Amino acid sequence: MPFPRTVPPLRLEFAQKAFIVDGGRLLMVRKTAADPRHPGRWEVPGGRLEPAGDLGLDDHIRREVWEEVGLKVDPGPPFHLWQWFMPDERSGDRVRVVAAARVCRPRSLEPTVRNQTPTDHLADPSWVPLDEVWGYDLIPDLRPVVRAFLRLHAGG
Questions:
Q1: What is the DSSP string of 37-75?
Q2: Tens of pLDDT along 14-38?
Q3: Domains in the chain, please, with CATH?
Q4: Which of 62, 86, 133, 149 has the most crowded Cβ, counting Cβ within 10 A?
Q5: 18 has which bridge partners?
Q6: How far is CA 88 from CA 33, 79, 94, 103, in A?
Q7: What is the bridge-based pairing of β-strands 25-31 and 42-43?
Q8: How far apart are the C-alpha atoms of 131 and 35, rounded to whole Å?
Q9: For residues 108 and 127, is the Cβ–Cβ distance under 8 A?
Q10: Pick from 12, 126, 118, 152: which is nearest to 71 by CA?
């Protein structure tokens, strides 16, 4: 007899976040009031992999950064892995997102939100001094990643 399914199906997705650093500053972006999960909270650029469109992981993080903040970057290696769960509003499935954080070196320094897609819900890209990052209302799942980033940056 098959085991009865009591929870919605679980879909796995992959995401990357770009910790873009320049001169002791981190590029952060604020979620707009229209964001369905974290309105007004702060994060770093990045997003989920598009399996049909992204050629590789470096291509993926470059695309996300370009779309969300209009910068060109050189991606570095991952420094932190984590996951979160969220509902898929269209299908009702649960989604497990496994994510990698990467330090990226900017090749340009003037952020813009004009390349965003309608679902990005990001505003106010800002270069934040590293010693002021904890003063921002961060997305809760991002806090351990920021802690790992700041430890890494202090050690380097």
A1: S-TT-EE-SEEE--TTT--SHHHHHHHHHHHHH---EEE
A2: 999 999 999 999 999 999 999 988 9
A3: 10-155 (3.90.79.10)
A4: 149
A5: 102
A6: 20, 28, 6, 29
A7: antiparallel
A8: 27
A9: no
A10: 126
